[in-house]
Structures are given as C-alpha cells and as structure tokens.
Specification:
Length: 479
C-alpha cells in the first residue's frame, strides 16, 4: 500500500494563516484605496460645483448676454461649422477666422480678464463660458479664461455623445470626472447664467487632478508597502503564538504517546502526568483526559496487581463490597500502598474525601437493617455520581472514602458543594421514605508536603474534617 504524503500541522497552519492574512490584507487595501479615491473625487467635484455656482452669481449677466449674442449671431450665420476635433486644420482655421472680431472686442477682453483673475484666485485650470445647443449636441465657446495654447477661441465647438447635457428642466450640469489623453484627469462642472428666467449660457469650471492622482498613486504604493510589512508582522506574531499554544503542545503530546510504552519497563506509567501544559482550551482538556486515562489505566493496573497480591495472600480476600458493589477496605488499603509509592516517586497531587452516613443506627433500630442497607446503598450511589472520575471505597459499615486525583482533585470544592446540595434536596423530598432521606457528613484533605509524610497522614486529616462537619451538622440541627 502506498504511503500517504505527510503534511505537518505546522505547515498547514502556516499556509492557512498566510492565505487568511493575504485575503484580509487585500480586502483592506482595496477598501481603503477605494474609499480614499471616492472621498478625494467627491471633494473636488463639490469644489467645482460650488465655484461654478459662485461664478454664475458673480459675473455680470448683461455683459455675458451681450457677448453671447455676438458669438451666437456669427454661429447662426454659418452654413457649416467645424468642430474642435479638427483643431489646426485649414477648414477649422477658416471657420474660426469668422470670429476674429470677437477676440478684439473690448467686452470680450474685459470678461476674459475677469475670468483669469478668478482662475488665479481659486487656483483652477480654467473658467470659461459656453452656450449649449443640447438638441444638436453643440457646446459653443463664448469666452475662455485659459492662457496661451490652452485657450479655446470664441465660436469653438465641442460635440460629444457621452456625458451630460443641460435641458430646460435640468439646466445645471453636475460635476463629472474624466481622464482623457489630451487633458488628463479633469473635474468639470457647469452652472447656468440666468436672466429673467431664461438661460443665457453656462459658466464652466475645469480643475486638473493630475497632481492629486499622482499623489494618490504614491499613497497607494505606500499603503501597499505598509500592508505587506504589517501582514508579515502579523503572520510572524501569529505563527509564534500558534507554535507556543498549539504546535509545541500537540507535538509534546504526540511524542509522549509515541514513546509511551518505551518510557520504562514498569506497568505503571506517569508520562502524561509529567507534562505541564497550561492551555485553558481543547488541548488542555485533551491533556487532562490523557492524564485521566493514564490514571485510570494505572488504577486498573493497580487493581490487577492488588488482586494478584490479594489472591496470593488469601483466596478468601475480596476487593468488592458485597452490599454496594464498590471496592472495599482491602481495595483501599492496596490503593493506599500505590499512593504511598507515588509519593516516594514525587507524585503527590492527590487528596482523600471521607463520607459518613448519619443516623444509620436509628434507621436500623426503627425500620430494620434492610432499610438501613437501603440508606447505605443510596449514599453510595450519590457519592459515585458526584465523584464520577474518582475511585470510591466502602471502608466501614457507614463510611466511604474517595481518592481524589486530577479533575476531581482540582474541582473538589465544587463537588462537595454539589454533594451537600443533593443531600439537602433529598432531605427535603417529602415523596421519599424516611430511610431514603439520607444524611451524611463529608470532609476532605489534600496532601500537603509541609505537614504530611504518608498517605495515612492525609487520611487522618480527612477523617478529622469529616467529624468536624458531622459535629457542625448536629449543632445546626439542635439550634
């Protein structure tokens, strides 16, 4: 069978992280770029519209009307017109020569100078006045404030199908942004000059955005470089974090599992117990489960070993309590030996919980021993349910002991609270018979290397804590 190619989790995680960061970075890059472009374009379009409207309010409409009529009279007198697309041709020069009188007109010069003053004040490329013939798509220049070769002479005609044209209902032309080979990036806006409710002509504003677009391009290059650097740093930081919290812990668990049976020749193993992973996540839960599995395996092995030892000592000795079905005092004694060996090996994280059934003698005397046995079995079931991850032993007629390790060891306070709450609920359950309304005292002790030397020392402290609880319960009942 052909062996499948192996791709490590680190490689998969690295590739996935790079892909995610690149996707997020690309989306952020294009979003920021688009947003910046839209904001800048909108700002310049608003500026062009405001300036066009302001110029329409500033210029003398009587003078504009007079000059417009002079230009349009010549325009209407022509049989044919030549468009600006033929600029410089003989036909165009011949056509434009018919408007030469306009350029020498003092009124034309006056308005042109006025437009140039406003151009310089507002720092725009061009302010000019046109007359739109929307029905035939002619835009006739009346006066242009541009200098030198950029100046369109009076009577010059632009004609285009694309773009916006004014009409009677909508004489205002909103600002438009264009990018043409001749003019480059340009924002244009037109506003009507109105007299007595009639549109005379339109004042137009052209603002070049070539410099802005160049800066925008440099900005995007800078943003690209910044995004690349930021994405790289994010990937490196994330990989370091993932290596620490995922890759290395999983590798340690994997290596431990691979070498588990090679750790030593003993039946008992503590390989997973030695691992110290502080992850408060699924990996931490996995380690806890592995430790619990190891503990259960060790407990099962210990049970087998103890059973063999017990069988060798006496065939009559049994580890199982005949009344409750759980392990008995003999089994606990064997467990205590194992715990003591663990202490000597340096594994001292364990505790003991003692439970004592209250009023057993009273139940036996009042209702009979069979009912007392029911009380014992009900208490046993409750203890096993609460401490479901720990071995439970019946070490006396009404006494039980729980060996606390791992999950139950760390959560013992909550488990004891749960145990007492359940007992309280049982006591207050009027549907139960008196011998079923059990009461019990519980106390526990964890191994403390400063005061404990043996398992027996922990047992005595747990037993003392249980009796203190029993005493407090009696006092509370008396009160």
């Amino acid at each position: 069978m052909k062996k499948k190619s192996f791709i490590s989790l680190k490689t998969k995680l690295t590739l996935s992280l790079i892909a995610i960061c690149l996707i997020i970075g690309s989306i952020a890059f294009f979003t920021v770029g688009r947003l910046a472009t839209d904001i800048i374009d909108k700002e310049y379009e608003d500026k062009a519209e405001q300036l066009a409207a302001a110029m329409a309010q500033t210029l003398d409409t009587d003078e504009i009307e007079e000059l417009t009529n002079k230009v349009m009279d010549i325009y209407y007198d022509q049989d044919t017109v030549v468009f600006s697309s033929d600029w410089g041709s003989d036909a165009w020069n011949k056509y434009q020569a018919k408007y030469s009188s306009i350029e020498s007109d003092p009124l034309y010069r006056k308005i042109q100078d006025e437009l140039r003053v406003y151009q310089d004040i507002y720092h725009v490329d061009c302010i000019y006045v046109t007359r739109y013939k929307t029905e035939i798509r002619h835009a006739v220049y009346i006066v242009d404030g541009a200098y030198d070769d950029d100046n369109c002479p009076p009577g010059c005609i632009d004609s285009f199908e694309d773009g916006l044209w004014p009409d009677d209902e909508n004489p205002i032309i909103p600002a438009t942004l264009t990018n043409e080979e001749v003019y480059g990036w340009l924002v244009s806006s037109s506003y009507p000059l109105i007299k007595d409710g009639k549109v005379i002509s339109h004042v137009c504003i052209d603002i070049s955005m070539d410099d802005i677009k160049a800066k925008e391009k440099r900005y995007m290059i800078f943003i690209t470089a910044a995004m690349v650097i930021l994405t790289t740093l994010m990937i490196l930081a994330s990989l370091r974090y993932f290596n620490k919290t995922i890759i290395y812990p999983i590798k340690e668990l994997s290596d431990t599992a691979k070498n588990y049976c090679q750790e030593n020749n003993d039946a008992i193993h503590h390989a997973f117990e030695k691992i110290n992973i502080l992850n408060n996540d699924e990996i931490g839960d996995l380690l806890s489960s592995m430790k619990q599995m190891e503990a259960d395996m060790n407990a099962n092995i210990n049970t087998l070993i103890n059973t063999q030892v017990a069988l060798q000592k006496s065939q009559e000795l049994a580890n199982k309590d005949s009344l409750t079905g759980i392990r008995n005092k003999t089994a606990y004694d064997a467990m205590a030996v194992t715990l003591q060996k663990d202490l000597e090996d340096g594994f001292n994280e364990f505790g003991l919980a003692m439970i004592d059934l209250n009023f057993l003698k009273k139940t036996n005397d009042t209702y009979g021993h069979e009912k007392g046995n029911i009380s014992i079995r009900r208490l046993c079931m409750l203890v096993c349910e609460v401490f479901e991850h720990s071995p439970v032993f019946r070490i006396g007629g009404d006494e039980f002991i729980v060996v606390l390790k791992f999950r139950d060891y760390k959560n013992v306070d909550n488990l004891i609270t749960d145990f007492n709450n359940r007992l309280e609920a049982v006591k207050n359950d009027d549907t139960l018979n008196p011998w079923e309304q059990i009461s019990a005292a519980i106390g526990y002790a964890k191994f403390d290397k400063t005061i404990d030397k043996t398992v027996e020392d922990v047992f005595k402290r747990a037993d003392k804590a249980m009796y203190e609880r029993k005493t407090s319960m009696k006092a509370a009942r008396t009160d």
